[in-house]
């Protein structure tokens, strides 16, 4: 079963932010997708709402992707590490069915809902309240690594529409625009920047 490997962070050096995004959206993606069990990725930047500024949504063939020597020997942000804050690496599995990774275009946004600081039962109750308002959200459960949130929800929305917050008050809800194309392993040279 495929898993979502979601990396979220902030970057605190504005004069280097463009260079960091060039690195992450180019050489870093290519390097990571060459590793065993890494299937695809798309990067996002928060346009409004709450949450960390950057999200990388990776799809892994299995959790073994994070156990290989290729991954363990050189993961992380390299020389950019001093400027990365609020970094989380979380592994998620679908609550049901197969994992779906959206491939967003430039006129779309990714809505993310998370429940940092809530227990699993509190997160499930908040999820149930959110599902009433947004039944199209896909939900993932924490399956490993940092476990910053018991659940995370995501859906594709139209970037041109007014994305008014709909999540319950105890949720973190952000809207993210794509800053890279959706890239699959083996097709890295075709990625292009947005």
Keywords, please?
194 residues; alpha+beta; Alpha-Beta Plaits; eight-stranded antiparallel beta barrel; 9 strands; 37% strand; disordered C terminus
Protein described:
The chain is of the alpha+beta class and 194 residues long. The protein has one domain: Alpha-Beta Plaits (2-Layer Sandwich), CATH 3.30.70. It has three helices and nine strands, in the order βαββαββαββββ. It has helices at residues 17-33, 69-72, 120-133, and strands at residues 3-11, 38-49, 54-60, 84-94, 108-114, 138-145, 151-158, 172-178, 183-184. An eight-stranded antiparallel barrel has the order 1-3-2-8-5-7-6-4. The longest helix has 17 residues, at 17-33. The protein is globular. It starts with a strand and ends in a 10-residue tail after the last strand. Mean pLDDT is 89; it is low at 190-194.
Topology of helices and strands:
Layout: E1 3-11, H1 17-33, E2 38-49, E3 54-60, H2 69-72, E4 84-94, E5 108-114, H3 120-133, E6 138-145, E7 151-158, E8 172-178, E9 183-184
Antiparallel strand pairs: 1-3, 1-4, 2-3, 2-8, 2-9, 4-6, 5-7, 5-8, 6-7
